[in-house]
Every structure is written in structure tokens, then in C-alpha cells.
Amino acid sequence: MVRRTVLAALLVAAALAGGARAQLKEGFYDYSCPQAEKIVKDYVKAHIPHAPDVASTLLRTHFHDCFVRGCDASVLLNATGGSEAEKDAAPNLTLRGFGFIDRIKALLEKECPGVVSCADIVALAARDSVGVIGGPFWSVPTGRRDGTVSIKQEALDQIPAPTMNFTQLLQSFQNKSLNLADLVWLSGAHTIGISQCNSFSERLYNFTGRGGPDDADPSLDPLYAAKLRLKCKTLTDNTTIVEMDPGSFRTFDLSYYRGVLKRRGLFQSDAALITDAASKADILSVINAPPEVFFQVFAGSMVKMGAIEVKTGSEGEIRKHCALVNKH
Questions:
Q1: Per-residue model confidence (pLDDT) at position 141
Q2: What class has domain 2-193+244-305?
Q3: List of E strands, the chain
Q4: Catalytic residue, candidates 47, 50, 62, 64
Q5: Is the pTM of this model over 0.85?
Q6: Is 253 known to sit in a ligand binding site?
């Protein structure tokens, strides 16, 4: 039954993403830059084992990029002309993979100048880095073009916040043509990575606005909350980091969902997943199935996400430097 459900989900994912994916294709660079995907993969395989935490930030970079103006690498652009860019918005201040992407871009520019987009590098590097740490593999159709606009406020408005309830989360995903299942499976990316205390400290000290350690989110397991307060000692701590999936934050597995069911999700948005019956049922189905089932459904949702509002053909440009729009 679980396997039939997974197959149906993957078929629906392919159909819904079909319009955008028709403009992308696997092997897009086979003739224009035959070594492109190998260059990305080899660099990731050489460096992620020495810095496994970068896998989570590359995955977040891809997610945050696609939710604002589509998957067009606008999150990589520096601010210009006194206007702040997406990377200056609070959700993106902890992204640490820009230099990693820049180094891959430099290798590709040496191999095939002006051919491979930064948007495709982000998508490929996210996929390959997850694979290196033992996570799933998914197809990445290529041919994305790079955007030329990046606006801080759009990132603040469109990237799902860790404080959102289920209704807000689902609406945020539906705005990008993603559905409830995509919300559940893509949230599973929280199985890897870390977060700063200020992303969830209101759950520990100021949930209702009254303030103090007695004003904790009642949906958070009290023992887990007490452990978090030992690390995050104040409401305003913005330097201490905490594992999003304690004890398993470098392993792509099902322990995140098990923690959520035990009321040990780090963010309000994690806790929100079990406030909806259909969402909770999806989580229960996947944790009672073989691990490869989660890998399959996560992969299907990543393919859909990677096709959000892509620029292809003559749209956008192929940036020479990922942080800068080309000079014309």
C-alpha cells in the first residue's frame, strides 16, 4: 500500500512539474559543456566529506532561491545601488555556501565560459551534496537561466518562516504550486543541519508574550525545551547553534520525523506538521516504511521544487560571476 502511494505521488509530481520541466531537460549541457555535471559532482565529492555541514546549507540555498522569483540564483546576488538583496534578508543571513558555489562556478567558467548558469550549479550542488552524506539521489533537469533582480523584501515575504502555523505553511507552498505532501517531504530536509537559537527562542521564553522560562510553547516536549534552554540561555541569543535533528544532524534519515511525532521538532513550523491530520498521516506512513520510501518521496518533491518559475531560453542571462549581474 505504501509503495503504491509513493508511486502515485511521484506520478503526480511529474505531471504538476511537467510544464516547467518541459523547458528544462536532463543532459542540457551534453554538447555545450559535456563535463559540466561531472565538474560539479567531483568538486562536491572532494569537499563535502571534510565539511558535511555545507550539505544542509546548499540544500537550504536551493530551497530559499526557488521560493523567491523561482530557481534563478537570485539569492546569490549582491546588493547594488543602495538596495538590499535577498541574501541580506534574515532567513538568508545564515546561508554559508556562497563561496562553495563561487568556486564551482570558477571551474566551470574555465572549462566552458559563459555556458553553465549559477541556478543550475545551485540545483546540482544541492543534489550531489545530499548524495555524498548518504541521502537520496534525484534527477536534475538543467537549462535554468540566471535572474537579474534580487530584492530583500521579497525574501522576507515569500520564504516560509519557522514561526508559521500549518495553514500559513501550506499557503506558502501552494503559492509555489507545491502541495501538502511536498510540504511534509521537503520539511524532512531538517534531518540535517543546524540553527541559531533566535530562530526558535520565542518557543522557549516568550511564546505568548508574557515572557520568561514559564512562557514556553505547550506543543514542545518539556524535557526537550529544558535541554534547549541549557544551550539557548536568552531570548536574544543569535550566536549559539543547535542541531535541528539532535544526534543525527549529519545523517539523512527518518529521525527528524520521529522527533516531530514526539513533540521535539525545533521550530513551530516543525510542530505544525502534526496539527493537520493528513500531514500527520503522511509522516506516520513514511516512518513505518523502509527508509528508501522517504528517499523516493523527498526526491520527487525536490524535482518539483527545482522547476518552480524557472527562466529558460532567452530569459535572464548566464552570469559570469554568481554574485553579480553581467555588464552589458
A1: 97
A2: mainly alpha
A3: 194-196, 241-243
A4: 64
A5: yes
A6: yes
